[in-house]
Amino acid sequence: MATDAPPPEGGTDTTTPAQPTTASYVEVQESAEFGELRRVYRSFAFPLTVAFIAWYLLYVLLSNYAGGFMGTKLFGNINVAFVFGLAQFATTFLIAWLYSRHAAVKLDPKAEAIKSRMEADA
Rounded CA gap, 23 and 73, in Å? Predict the structure, then answer.
């Protein structure tokens, strides 16, 4: 939201850290430490993404082509399709929780170390 207020008078803002240069970003991107961070992220995210997409496509394909199976009543008015549908939500929340734990333990410390070093060098 834009305001009509003039910018603050004089001086530089000392509360924000110095901004790294483009060269320092390129240097960090090419470093082994950043490569390791990227590898750890990808080794978690890619397999889980593929597994979840396969699980979702299985649900869709079964819903389209195995109506008899998906319509099988398990108890009361609860059928296989309903249980699979709820399992999609449960799987989504489980993956989000697992990623949160993975990021807190393995990704965040490495990323924070890289960030701190970049801010110190700037």
Answer: 62
pLDDT tens digits in sequence order for the chain, 122 residues long: 566 766 666 555 556 666 777 888 888 889 999 999 999 999 999 999 999 999 999 999 999 999 999 999 999 999 999 999 999 999 999 999 999 999 999 999 999 999 888 888 76
- Single-letter code of the amino acid located at 45: A
Structure-block tokens of residue 93: 């929340």
Q: Terminal CA-to-CA distance of the chain, rounded, Å?
A: 30
Whether 95 contacts 47, CB under 8 Å: no
CB of 62 closer than 8 Å to CB of 8: no
The DSSP annotation for 25-36 comes to HHHHHTSHHHHH
d(CA 109, CA 37): 10
